[in-house]
Recover the amino acids of this structure.
């Protein structure tokens, strides 16, 4: 299909703010972010004009990822805001509004770019030094001896997401679960091998449709999808056996036996040579024989497992889970101590095996999930919750620096007053510094 208009090549300019179209797009972006900000912020519905699903949100992460722009300057600003969110999990809308407002004010003031950069750097230094002061009135110390303080901090993050449409009771329940999951990831005592460092566990959030928010829960261990569990009586029986520990093997390579997985575009087979598919299946069966000999009781694969290999393993009482996906591989490795095996052509090394204390099937909404129990404490926690990832991340950051800033615009107002007074005091000196 030919284009109606010829595709234009990307244009790179050293002064994008001199172009009216760029300024118009930046103004529109600032208006979108401003209308989502604060207690009276409104939801946005984002829909691609080509088609696809409709996104309803007011959070900066979802909004910036959904609203794309071909303008390099807007891409840079968007990437900076998303990087800020990945580090701090908060204040994405405020960061975007502040950035775009600073650019707009500099444009309207007529200042030279070099002077504007010096002024902004000086103002940033004033704000940073004020916030780092011990007697700063914007800061509140977070007491980790009080669970109520942690719940309040988590709730301040969760309640700022109006699209979740959570009631007061649901917000309190989710906030409590977020704190519970966070505390489960904090190890007790010194970390083995490095007593001066604390290595936190991992929290994995599992979403579920058709599940009441108040039915959300925290499970020590890990939940993995197991949609075919009820189809195989052997697997169901395996999960009902006594407590472990059970030996676990984890593979990231496809065990489907397909020739396409070898990465070879063309494969020549000479007359009289054995069938390549039979050779691959023999290798897979030898792998299964080793797993049975080594008393592996849980066999997991990120991708697909050949049906013949599955049948062989289940016949010997091995629990088989395939199509895990890449998202849960790292949590499984961290919890079980297993090493993900990326080859099936060589024997499984003994150090690659991991352990789980036990496993059982849980019904989460409309989904059947396998619950892997951790072999020891501390262990990662799995939370079947809504909108708790940000809250859990904020709690982790607070553990490193137990200080929170006042919300509701108090910190911004306090900072603005301090900068204004500081400018009045240093007014005779500032022009010489610039």
């Amino acid at each position: 299909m030919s284009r109606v208009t010829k595709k234009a090549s990307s244009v790179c300019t050293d002064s994008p703010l001199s172009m009216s179209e760029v300024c118009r797009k930046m103004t529109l972006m600032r208006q979108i972010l401003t209308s989502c900000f604060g207690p009276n912020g409104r939801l946005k519905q984002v829909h691609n004009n080509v088609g696809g699903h409709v996104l309803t949100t007011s959070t900066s992460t979802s909004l910036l990822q959904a609203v794309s722009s071909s303008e390099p300057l807007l891409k840079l600003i968007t990437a900076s805001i998303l990087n800020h969110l990945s580090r701090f999990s908060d204040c994405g809308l405020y960061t975007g509004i502040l950035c775009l407002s600073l650019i707009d004010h500099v444009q309207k003031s007529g200042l030279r770019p070099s002077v504007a950069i010096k002024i902004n750097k000086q103002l940033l230094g004033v704000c940073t030094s004020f916030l780092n002061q011990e007697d700063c009135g914007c800061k509140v110390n977070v007491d980790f001896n009080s669970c109520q303080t942690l719940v309040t901090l988590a709730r301040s993050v969760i309640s700022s997401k109006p699209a979740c449409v959570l009631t007061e009771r649901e917000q309190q329940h989710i906030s409590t679960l977020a704190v519970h999951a966070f505390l489960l990831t904090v190890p007790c005592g010194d970390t083995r091998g490095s007593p001066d460092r604390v290595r936190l566990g991992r929290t994995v959030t599992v979403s579920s449709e058709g599940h009441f928010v108040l039915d959300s829960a925290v499970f020590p261990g890990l939940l993995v999808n197991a949609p075919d569990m009820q189809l195989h009586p052997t697997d169901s029986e395996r999960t009902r056996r006594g407590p472990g520990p059970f030996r676990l093997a984890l593979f990231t390579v496809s065990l489907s036996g397909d020739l396409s997985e070898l990465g070879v575009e063309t494969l020549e087979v000479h007359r009289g040579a054995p069938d390549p598919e039979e050779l691959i299946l023999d290798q897979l069966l030898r792998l299964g024989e080793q797993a049975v000999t080594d008393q592996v009781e849980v066999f997991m694969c990120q991708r697909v497992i050949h049906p013949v290999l599955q049948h062989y393993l289940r016949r010997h009482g091995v629990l088989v889970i395939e199509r895990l996906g890449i998202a849960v591989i790292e949590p499984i490795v961290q919890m079980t101590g297993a090493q993900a095996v990326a080859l099936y052509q060589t024997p499984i090394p003994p150090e690659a095996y991991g352990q789980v204390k036990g496993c059982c099937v849980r019904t989460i909404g409309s989904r059947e999930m396998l619950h892997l129990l951790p072999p020891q404490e501390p262990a990662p926690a799995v939370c079947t919750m809504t909108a708790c990832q940000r809250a859990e991340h904020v709690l982790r950051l607070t553990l490193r620096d137990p200080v929170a800033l006042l919300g509701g615009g108090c910190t911004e107002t306090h900072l603005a007053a301090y900068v204004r007074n500081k400018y009045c005091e240093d007014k005779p000196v500032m022009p010489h510094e610039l």
